Amino acid sequence: MKTKFKITILFFLAVFTFQSCQDNDDVAAPSNLEVQNFIWKGLNLYYLWQADVPNLSDTRFANQTDLNSFLSGYPVPEDLFNALRVDKTIDRFSWIVSDYLVLEGQLQGTTNNNGVEFGLVYKSGSTTDIFGYVRYIVPGSDAATKNIKRGDIFYGVNGTQLTVSNYQGLLFGSNNDYTLNLADYNAGAITANGKSVALTKTVLDENPILTNTVINSGSHKIGYLMYNGFYATYDTNLNDAFGTFKSQGITDLVLDLRYNGGGSILTASRLASMITGQFTAQIFAKQQWNAKIESYFETNNPAALNTLFTDKIGTTPINSLNLTKIYILTSKSTASASELVINGLKPYIDVVQIGDVTVGKNVGSVTLYDSPDFSATNRNPNHRYAMQPLVLKIANSAGFGDYSSGLVPTYQMKENLGNLDVLGSTTEPFLSTAIAKITGTGKMAQPIPGIDFDYFKDSKSANGIQNQMYLEKAPEGLLKALE
C-alpha cells in the first residue's frame, strides 16, 4: 500500500506540474470564484468523462484569466458542477455538497434521521401519487421507541398526500419533526386508517449489520447476515460477525443486500475476503480511470489499478469462511459496492442471486475538497463545499463491468406488501427461498397477486446520500511535495 501511495503522489505531482505550466500568468481566482475554481480544476483532473466535456479540456483555457472569465458565468457553484457533467443519463450519480461535514458523516452511516428506512412506490393507476412502506427500523433511533414497524404503510406527512413532486420536502426537508399518516392495504387501494406516528430526527449512527444469526436446517448450518451499508468504520464489527459464523462452523451463507446502496470499495474487498479467504492477493476488482490517469498508471504501475483480496484489516487477521458458494439477496435498491461484491466474486465462486435486478452502478467516486491536492488536508477555510464526482469504472478480474442496467438474479423475486415478514425469520420469503435452494427441500415463495406496486425510490437514495461506491480518500501530502 505504501508503494502504491508513493506512486500516486508522484503521478499527481506530475499532473499538477503540467497544469501549472498551462497557467501563463499569475492571476489567481478572485474570492467570489474560489468554489468555482475548485470545481473546474478538480473535475479537469479526476472526472471519469473529462475528455467528453469540451469545457474541461486541458487546452480549453489559455490561462487563469480566461478560466476566471468562464467561471464568472456561473455564480451558483452547483450550476457550474452540473454544467460540467456529461449527459445525466450517463452520469447518474456525481454530486456536490455545500457542507462536507454532512457528507463525511453520511459516507460513514451518520445522518440526521428518525430511524425509519422505507421504500416509496406508486399508487395503483397513478403516476404522481406515491406511498411508503417501512422496510426496517434502525436500532437506537427515535422510531425504535415508537409504534411503527416493518410492513407498516404510510400515505402522507402531516396530513398531506405524498407525491413525486412534494416527497423530498415533506420527508427530507429541514424540519426535524413530522408525523407519518398511516394507511391500510385494501383490495389494491391504499386507504387512510386514522393512525399516525410522530417522529423526530436526531444525529444517528447506523451500524450496517442489522441482523446476524445462524439457522440450523437439517445437516446445514446457515449463516444469515443483513448488511445495509459499506461503512469502513464498522469493518471490525463485520469481521467479528464473520468470526461468529466461523466459530459456529456454518456450512452456507445468505448475505442480504436488499437495502444496501453501497459505500466503501475497501470495505467491499474486505467483505469478499471474509466470504472466501482462499484468494488472498489475487485481483478482486480492476479500476478504470479517465484517459490521463489511466495512461499514467498503465505505463508506470499497472498493479495500482487493481483492488486485491486481503487477509487483514490493518494488522487484524480477517475471519474468512473459505466458501465456494454464496447466496445473495437483492432488490432494486441494491447498488454500487453491493454490486461490486457480487460481480467481484463471480469469477471465483458460485454466486446465487435471489431477488430483483440491481440498480446498475458500476462506477465509483472520491471526495474532493478545495485544497492544493484535493485531499482533506489544508482545506480552504472560506467554505465547506466538496464534490463526490465519478472518477472510475470498475470491473471484476475477468474484465466484466458492463452492468449499468443492473445485475440479473439467478432466481427473480420482488419485494411487495405481501412478503414483508420479520427479517431473519425462516418464514420471511426471500430468506426461506434461499434456505430452500440450499437444502433442496422446497420451491421459491410465490408472490401474492395484487400487492405488487411500481418502485419509485427508497429512503437512502432519496435522502441525498445516493447510491455510493467510493475510494476512502484522495491521496494526501501533495502540498508538501509541491513546495
Features:
single chain, 483 residues, alpha+beta, 13 helices, disordered C terminus
SSE arrangement:
Elements: H1 2-22, H2 34-46, H3 64-71, H4 77-83, E1 95-97, H5 100-106, E2 110-113, E3 116-122, E4 130-137, E5 153-157, E6 160-161, H6 167-172, E7 177-186, E8 189-200, E9 202-205, E10 209-217, E11 220-227, H7 235-247, E12 252-256, E13 262-264, H8 265-275, E14 283-288, H9 291-300, E15 306-308, E16 312-313, E17 316-317, E18 325-330, H10 337-345, E19 350-355, E20 363-365, E21 368-369, E22 386-388, E23 390-395, E24 411-412, H11 429-439, E25 455-458, H12 459-462, E26 468-470, H13 478-482
Parallel strand pairs: 11-12, 12-18, 13-26, 18-19, 19-24
Antiparallel strand pairs: 1-22, 2-9, 3-4, 3-25, 4-5, 5-6, 5-7, 7-8, 10-11, 14-15, 14-23, 16-17, 20-23, 21-22
Helix pairs in contact: 7-8, 8-10
Low-confidence stretches: 1-25, 475-483
Sum up the overall morphology in one term: globular
* Backbone structural class: alpha+beta
Q: Fraction of residues in helices? A: 25-40%
Most strands sheet: 7 strands, antiparallel
Molecular structure report:
The chain is of the alpha+beta class. The protein contains 13 helices and 26 strands. It has helices at residues 2-22, 34-46, 64-71, 77-83, 100-106, 167-172, 235-247, 265-275, 291-300, 337-345, 429-439, 459-462, 478-482, and strands spanning 95-97, 110-113, 116-122, 130-137, 153-157, 160-161, 177-186, 189-200, 202-205, 209-217, 220-227, 252-256, 262-264, 283-288, 306-308, 312-313, 316-317, 325-330, 350-355, 363-365, 368-369, 386-388, 390-395, 411-412, 455-458, 468-470. The strands form seven sheets. Strands 3, 4, 5, 6, 7, 8 and 25 form a seven-stranded antiparallel β-sheet that branches. Strands 10-11-12-18-19-24 form a six-stranded mixed β-sheet, sandwiched between helices. The longest helix has 21 residues, at 2-22. It is globular.
